[in-house]
Amino acid sequence: MVASPKPQPLGSSSDDTRRAVSATAGVPASGVGGGSGGGSPGTPERTIHNEITKLKANTVNAAAIAFFIGGGVGPLIGIGVTGFTLLQAVMALVWFFVGLVLHSMAQTVLGGLLP
Question: pTM value?
Answer without folding.
Answer: 0.58
